[in-house]
Structure formats: structure tokens, C-alpha cells
Design brief:
The chain is mainly α and 187 residues long. The protein has helices spanning 10-18, 22-44, 47-63, 74-92, 112-131, 134-145, 150-157, 161-185.
Amino acid sequence: MTSPEGEPTDTRLAQAVQRGDVVAYELLVRRHMNRAFSLAQRLLGHRQDAEDMVQETFLAALEKISTFDPTREFSPWFYRILVNRCLNARKTRTRRATVQIPEGVATDFASPLIDTERSELREHIQDAIMRLPERQQEIFVMSDFNGFSSPEIAEAMGISDGTVRWHLHQARRTLREALEPYARRNI
């Protein structure tokens, strides 16, 4: 199996890794590093924690590669390991995690007043996201910040696609209600 560009698929690479191919493993890491880091950073809230978690997850995936089922896709298998490890790390942390709003959401400020209002809005958005139930928060971050599709999230979290869509709908509804006063202010 190869992609339309002639590159081997992730599944084919994972099979090669199962046979001990180091180059195939390096290619899998390169393909998934950025998305894995982005997801880990959103779930953990801190760059250094995310870097450590991604590195640990790639090592764990390599150690568990014999459990990979080549009749399935590689990425949901890998991201499920990453999500589970991030959730476990969050549960063991005693400090409160924050979800960072992507840089550039509010740029080119027209005045110090607008700068302050937008800063308050970012804090309010982060607060609203952190108040979501844990599962809704995870699904919202995976979908809206990291671009995962509902089926990808479902497979990674081990739940049905319908459950993912329901949680995403609930999260967005809750956030809309929480942020509605700011929408009226036209910040």
C-alpha cells in the first residue's frame, strides 16, 4: 500500500517497524511529530510537558509496536496511546492546566483599551474551556484546535463517532453561552 504520492502508508511503515526497520520508524515519527506535539500541548497546556509526553509516547509506541493490528489504521492507534498518556499525566498533576489560545487570534491591536479587552476575552475563553467537563474539553481541543475529525477522535478515544459529535455539540453550546456577552460587545 502506498499513498497517491507514492509514499508508503503509515500502516505499511508500521509493519516494517514490526520487522525491525529503523528507517520506517523515523519516517513515522517525522510524519506525526507536529500533530502529536500540537495535540499534547493542547491537552497538557505546557510546551515542555508536551515535548516530554510526545517523546515518551513515540518510545511507548515503539515498545508496543507488536500489538499494532495491520488491518487497522496506524494514526488512531498511535493517537489513542498519546491521548491516554496525556490524560493520565493530567490526572496526576496537582496544578491546574490551561489551554492556550493560538497566537494570532487577536493581533494588530488598535488601542490599549482594545488590547486589554482582547486579553480579558482570551482569559475568559480559556476559563470557559477549562470549565467544560473533561471529555468535552478533550474532544473540543482535538477537533477545533487540532483539526481531528469525529471518526479520528472516536477511534483515538475508544468511543463511538456519535458520542464524539454529541460531546462536541454540547461543548460548543456551552462555550457559545459562556461567551455570548462578549459577542454582543464586538471585541
